[in-house]
Amino acid sequence: MAGLKKKMTIPFARVPVAINEQKYVQEVLESGWLTTASKAAALEKKFARVVQAKYACAVNSGTAALHLGLEALGVKPGDRVFVPSMTFTASAEIIRYLQADPVFLDTEYGTNLITPGILEEAIALHPDVRFLIVVHYGGQAAPMVSDENQAGILEICNKYGIKVLEDAAHAFPARLGERMVGSLGDVTCFSFYANKPLTTGEGGMLTTRNKEIYDRVKKMRLHGIDHDVWDRFTENKPSWEYDVVEAGYKYNMPDVNAAIGLAQLEMAAEFRAERQRAAMFYYEHLGQLQEFMDLPVTRVPFSDHAWHLFPVVLKEKAPLGRNEFIKKMAMAGIGTSVHYKPLHRMTYYKNRYHLDAKSFPRAEKTWQGNVSLPIFPYMTPEELNYICKTIEKLLKY
Ligand SMILES: Cc1ncc(COP(=O)(O)O)c(C=O)c1O
């Protein structure tokens, strides 16, 4: 480990600038419509087309999309909802917003996804649960669709009358066979947070093919008002007239954010291919370290993966543990992160639901050594090479 010098500074994430952000934001400023208006409507339309969804509803965060989606699926106080433990707290906190309770699931080692097998085990243990949140971890779709070997998650849920909400915060653009993530199940939620594959700074999108869900989400996104300001402006009705039909939320996406999203969307395919290029470099150059480190397992073709994350797992045999590794990487100027410390280890969930790490053996195996490496568009060969060489030095010498 001697000779580990800082030769570069590489952040964990670097937001790529698309070409037209400034132009579209300028248009918003000049239009005088800074709140939800034509840019948000255009982003909804274009995003829906890209992910093959019938409807899309732009909101001000991925968390807002998840909250609205779960509410629209009909979760009520006291209901229980399956959710993976290996995720960000937003996936589970929204269950609590509705005064329902999470039932945490273990996730597959290597992919960090829920599998049909894990789901079947959970259903056998908790036959009363009627809702499931699936996380398309890291940018890879979970096995939603049946194949010749096994029933997919959607088919299993259909059989047991379980409604599914997909957390696709990491998974844009991502594909499963012929379908884009966003058109697989009834409700899919995307995050456009600053470091996400498509960003609006802060923002999110909910997609659905179900008109009833769409109408509900659209209404609840803006105070439970029957039709919003932009609708009233464009509909030629008296602009003061509206009715409040529910106690809704304030989750609409401002046009300034939507303008950034429109520019980013134009570059989404290129940005995804760029992240894939970085992932392929890692597979090629870190494969020989498998004695000490596991690389992420893919279930889908590389080109169907959004490659939001590149999470590796340091094995017990590695000469240094995860925390030490992160420190040393930082000393070498390389930013890393951890996705995730599982929710069953977080104080709130652990105490409230009396969770025992032993119930999550696969997530625990991951947690012992998980580190996410930098992955973002336009990483240079020098940057990628420096990261791989630094890792090699840390693990081999
Ligand atoms: C898996 C997952 N779900 C939900 C969210 C919440 O998204 P947002 O930050 O846009 O509210 C995130 C954000 O980091 C996430 O990683």
Protein described:
This protein is α/β, with parallel strands linked by helices. It folds into two domains: 21-267, Aspartate Aminotransferase, domain 2 (3-Layer(aba) Sandwich), CATH 3.40.640.10; 269-396, Aspartate Aminotransferase, domain 1, CATH 3.90.1150. It contains 14 helices and twelve strands. The strands form three sheets. The protein has a seven-stranded mixed beta sheet with strand order 1-9-8-5-4-2-3, sandwiched between helices. A three-stranded antiparallel beta sheet has the order 10-11-12, with no helix packed on it. The longest helix is centred in the last third of the chain and has 19 residues, at 268-286. It is globular and about 75 Å long. 46% of the residues are buried. Residues 61-63, 87-88, 90-91, 135, 167, 169-170, 191, 193, 204 line the site of pyridoxal-5'-phosphate.
Explain the layout of strands and helices.
Elements lengths: L20 H11 L6 H13 L4 E5 L2 H11 L7 E5 L5 H8 L3 E5 L10 H10 L5 E5 L17 H8 L2 E5 L7 E2 L2 E2 L6 E5 L12 E5 L2 H11 L7 H6 L20 H12 L1 H19 L6 E2 L15 E5 L7 H10 L15 H6 L8 H7 L2 E4 L7 H16 L1
Parallel strand pairs: 2-3, 2-4, 4-5, 5-8
Antiparallel strand pairs: 1-9, 6-7, 8-9, 10-11, 11-12
Pyridoxal-5'-phosphate binds next to helix 3 and helix 4.
Q: What compounds sit in this structure? A: pyridoxal-5'-phosphate
Question: Strands across the major sheet, in which order?
Answer: 1-9-8-5-4-2-3
Enter the CATH topology name of the largest domain. Aspartate Aminotransferase, domain 2
Name the CATH class of the largest domain: Alpha Beta
CATH superfamily of the largest domain: Type I PLP-dependent aspartate aminotransferase-like (Major domain)
Overall average residue pLDDT:
96
The largest β sheet comes out as: 7 strands, mixed
The helix fraction, in percent, is 25-40%
**How would you spell out the order of helices and strands?**
HHEHEHEHEHEEEEEHHHHEEHHHEH
Low-pLDDT ranges = none
- Count of separate DSSP helical elements: 14
How would the global form be characterised? globular
- Give the radius of gyration: 22 Å
Helix and strand content put the structural class at alpha/beta
CATH architecture of the largest domain: 3-Layer(aba) Sandwich
Approximate strand percentage: 5-15%
